[in-house]
Fold each of these.
Amino acid sequence: MIKKLTAVLLTILICVLSLSACTADKPVQPAVTTETAEESSVRSVDASGFKLSYSKSDSLNPFESETLNNQVLETLVFESLFILDETWEAQALLAESYEYTDSETLVVKLKEGAVFSNGKKLRAENVVYSFKRAKDSPRWSAALSGFSSAEEKSEYEVKFNLTSPNPEAHKLLTFAIAKMDPDKNGYPIGSGRYKYGEGAGLVYLEVNPKYRGDFNPHFTKLLLINITDETSIENAVNIGNISLAFRDMSKGSKNKIQCNKKPVNLNNLVYLGINCESGITANAYIRKAISLAIDRDTLVKSAYRGYAKPALSVFNPACKLGKSTAVFKSTADTDGAVQAIAQSGIDKKDLKLDILTSSSEGKSDAAQLIKQQLEAVGFKVTVNKEKPSTFSTEVKYRHFNLYVGETRLTGDMGLKSFFGGGATSYGIDGDFETVKSYKGYLNGENEIGKFVLDFSQELPFVPLLYRQGMLCYSYSLRGDMQGYTDNYFSNIEDWYFN
């Protein structure tokens, strides 16, 4: 009996000890996790970990910088009233709200909690100062050309005056907002996630301790490496000397980029300009035939190495407006093109066209492909390749039937450059219904659908594709890379090294 009782007690004791052991194990796991996080944090603080290229000879002031290198960095240091997402919709950043008080007046209310990295409040006076600097800068002058002025309405309200009605004008308020005075080292001050710093002969970005919200990145310092040449930047990413770079791809790439790559949608429209005022291209059926004969998919894959999207609308295919107004096909309709030629009444012997192009790689290749596609439906085509300066002069004086052009549209998808006498309006007939209906859309006199219908019937120019850029980054960099145009470091707080 005693033996049995002893056995029972022993069994109970073992169970109690087991339960105690299980209970004691519970706090152990968080301790391991905390230690891992602390180790990760120590690695993150290392200023030599994450490296970005910059141009030492160029300014780091957002209103003065000229290189893409420095302008990419500035998106980490400065914020704007609004930021455009991947679909080119405006998201409020420093703006709390906005209101069009009439067709030519826009009032923006600021978030009252925003401060600069030195702790000073961000007020309306800072926005007005930055607007004036941005309007005079090459970087933002085109986007802000539709604004005549900005003024303080109150401490946290700014009134923007427009030169003409534009219901999407708030999408243009993406300029950097900076404090008027620099910091003690001469660096400009912003309200972004990072701020400029220097020490031990190094220049870097460090986390802005005054940044609002919960921002706890793995990389608390980003070392800046002076590399200016485009080829050298690509080589530096390939071998891991810098961690990430944005390539505009406007000149293609002579290097084989051997790293992780992410296409970035741009608002750069590549189009076929048409002389609608003289020659056979003054015939609407000929213009229709030209558009139908073009295989946009082939242009994307061959001339732009896949870094582009076919233009199925006048507007960017990545935005809602582009998706809802698609009127073009990505592939050629040769039968439709031949039929349009027949409807034109132009004799076959007169189906002669010349395509003017500049010597840039993408446009030159596109011109050759378009030549082949137009010849497949009966045109006889000559390609004239010119230096950029000569190309611009020839376009200005309308010495072309067709030309391959490229323009960067502003965030509001504005087409004033085509229909308001701008640099891309050469060859467009000012009496076209398209010109009138576009103005009517801006004035609120007609819907966008009327403009799109008029455009598809008159074809004052042919949209070909929207070009893309590239984010290239080290194989060792991990995290869901979500960067996009003008917000290349969208979710940098989630990035880490393998």
Note: The first helix runs from residue 2 to 25.
Amino acid sequence: MISQFYKDMTGKRSVIRDFFDYSMQREKEMGKDSVINFSLGNPSVPAPAEFEKAMIDLIQNEDPVVLHGYSPTLGRPSTRQAIAESLNRRFGMDYEMKHIFPTTGAAGALSHAIRCVAAEGDEVITFAPYFPEYIPYVTGCGPNLKVVPADIETFQINFEVFEEMMNPKVAAVLINSPNNPSGIVYTTETIKRLASILTEKEKEYGHEIFLISDEPYREIVFEGTDSPYITAFYDNSISCYSFSKSLSIPGERLGYVAVNPKAKDADMIVPMCGQISRFTGHNCPPSIIQLAAEKVLDLTSDLSVYETNAKILYNALTEMGYQIVKPGGTFYMFPKCPIEDANEFCWTAAKELGLIIVPSDSFDVKSHFRISYCVTTETVEKSLPLFEKLIKMF
């Protein structure tokens, strides 16, 4: 008998994928020029040349047995050490190799981190808007996901409701900054206040509350934006990172868990990740990708196009009458719809104009839509007349 649980999940399609699939079908039937696609967050710039060179050098000069062999359970030691040193150099931390666990992207990192600190019946709190995959990441290993509603004026943390929701069952708080889908970056003031509340509640409840920070967009921060290194502000914290966006290598599936050395039982969490892998079937990222990435840890792709696109869209759309909280990073923007029904608005955009945007409901916010502007600037400019037509239709 097949699993009813996973069978039921097959009927819960991703709204993002629905719009993407529609765009592909329309493009097939009406031609590529019939669609401007802002649905998926797939990086649109190439990986750094240094990464490509590192890959070529490894293939030409490294022992093939090493290059294509199994990675150790906890990841390649040289990669873990290089990541620790890079984080220490950039953010003034004191990580050691033992605090780093390479994973298959931020998704793998989050899945491991949540299992390390939350158990069946515990609660994990997150903040809307949030990446929809948080639901299976959390509920798939037993805890209950609780969501603090969004402050749609700023998309910073709604602290009043957050404090009301805190209770002794809370084992972890899961945050995403810079944020998908809003593009907002939590300020130093926000993170300090969050850390203060968690410290106070730890004392009140008599147990640790871990802060899990989902950071795949850490390097995509726009000029003048206050973007603190979150782990530095709270001891019981775990950073979950991905190189998918910074190095533009999403298909290589490389990320890591970084455990704050000051966290309770910090030295146990990475070995625990190794044991969790036995249950999830995770067997570390490929050796060649770990080895190549460790040579370019302080580099990024040319990410400047995202800020260019953000400025063009924000200035043009606000002038048209769209209400938008100005993004501070990522390659997402989260305008308010001129009507209540975000699905109606986005399907109208898709079917009438070939403009593919994503409704906000799956991010647990009403009456907004996400623009994923990791596209060429030419595409952004071509979209502007369509956005103007769209708002006039309502």
Note: The chain has a mean pLDDT of 95.
Amino acid sequence: MAKVSKRLKAAIKQQPATALPLAEAVESLKGFGATKFDQSVEIAIRLGVDHTQADQIVRGSIVLPNGIGKEQRVVVFAKGPAADSAKEAGADEVGEDELAKKILGGWTDFDVCIAAPDMMRIVGPLGRVLGPRGLMPSPRAGTVTPEIGKTVAEYKAGKVEFRNDKGGNVQAIVGKLSFDSPLLVENIQAFIERILSMKPATVKGVYVKAVHLSGAMSPSVRVAI
């Protein structure tokens, strides 16, 4: 069993017993004590969806208003003008067959993979490598697109993807603990509103069942909806 640090033990004792309004939840999270690095803040939303029903999959992306405090590494499958626009927008690597061979060889040192529609013949076989890591380009997620430059710029600015898992949970990074509280609140509120706007028409009963915030090395705080 992993040893629990004194800081984490103290933080657990401070963990609120009830759900808090968003602004208070953020302050509570910030009050758990500093660590040697700037923790990412993650949101976890439990939804009342049935993952076995295709029309109840909640999947998409959002450009958070204040970014996520992290430089995302973006690779792009494109050629010609699309490849040029990807490079201009700051893509970390742009290519075709050689890039595919590199990934098939086990290289996945990136956060986002974007592809132009005419590149899917090359990208398709990469599903067995990229799929399990959540990196496979998809039209539904907006990562298979003719607007390559715009999409690269959005991810560089802090765009995040999300998709509910088998338990109906949606998780995403929404910033850093070092963010000023109002900026973190704005990011979280934007994410929650995005999820609320995507409620499947076939969902019966409660859609959003619970919302929690946590740091990479801190307990969670439940947010009142």
Note: The helical segments are 6-14, 22-30, 80-88, 97-104, 120-123, 127-130, 148-157, 181-197.
Amino acid sequence: MYTEIMFAEYDIHFVAVNDGVDSQKGENDLTPFRNLFNEWYARDCSKKQRAVKRMKGMSGERVSSHAPYGYIKGEGGKLMVDEETAPVVKLIFDLRVEGLGVGRIASELTRRNIPTPGTIEYRRTGKTRRYLPHAECVWSATTITMILKHKEYLGHTVNFKTFSKSYKFKKRYPTPEDQQMVFKDTHEAIITEEVWETVQRLSQHRRRRTNDHEPGLFSGMLYCADCGSPLHFSTGSNTSGKDPRYICGSYRKRSVEKCCSAHYIRQPVLEELVLENLRQITKLATEQEKEFVRLIMNRTLSKQQEDVKTLQKELVTKEHRIVELDGIIKKLYEDNFSGKLSDERYIIFSRDYENEQHTLKAEALDIRNQIAEQDSKVVNINSFVGLARKYTSFEKLTPGMLHELVEKIIVHEGDKSSGHRIQKIEIYYSFVGDLESSHVVAQRTRKTPAA
């Protein structure tokens, strides 16, 4: 394209000294062959380099040339904790656990005049790739997001996080997580597994801000028991002032299919219920650890057995239908062979039945995998007990406490049939799920008019 078309079109004089090519002396018949051989050589070098990197990465050796922010490269390329930047990484994760979004975390680091990763790299190596002279301490939400996703902070080596489609392209694409290679405990961790799990769980929820630019205490944690939608935080008003409350996200929607009741619950009521239940659970987990472990294991085993029975029943139904379809397809073939069924009809019917059978086989395989996962599930009770020990004494709820200890809260609709408004909530705790004692009820007496 260049030597035979573009250079000629723009009257460019092209000279390749080592290959004896000069466009003013006419075309060289061997040039296309040289180009082809050079292309093969470059492709072969690329394959060999990829093979070497693949071998190193599969053996657990770190293949990335850059150390993540918070680490420095030591002997043999092993990551070592950077005493200057590791505390900043811990601060970022702690602020996220406290409920701050990535934008507010970036603003907080900027306010504290903490140098950005690009600034640190420039001061140490002189590289200007990510350095902004006019904004040495101005953090961006994108940088915070990337830091919160690094598994290296758990002490793991993660290889093959990106790939290129061809050696001709410089652009790299993210590799799906199930295709990445993770080698655990290869260097010193900066954050704990519990903090990591909490942060990743928070990243899956979107917290809505109010007019005061502050999200609700339980935002992103409440879900409707009937439709599964998140409950939205609202700061309405009543005779005594502001009335912070939560309402089902699909309430008042125009779509009939998604419409749901309000599931209205006031934040002060919710705070009181969760605070009291948290005190009971953390006390049981720390003071009577053996009893706590027994309760969780019994409940987990019971639920696991119920789930496995349901899956096995569904699997038997699908396998029975698969065998039945084999008989139907065989009968169709016999009818077609004997002339009872035309070729056109046979093709249509057999294709439909084979597609159904193929779908059922895929669903059956998925169910078998689910049963295998249920059999291998282990509740990480020690992780929850470790978190509970951090909060042995507390007077009020804080965002950090909630996000670390509570995974989600299911809110039921209030029941007024008894003359009182009775509302049930289910609290699911991190690592251990819900317990019988975490199903609590709020009761409020309805006011009767004066005589």
Note: The chain has a mean pLDDT of 83.
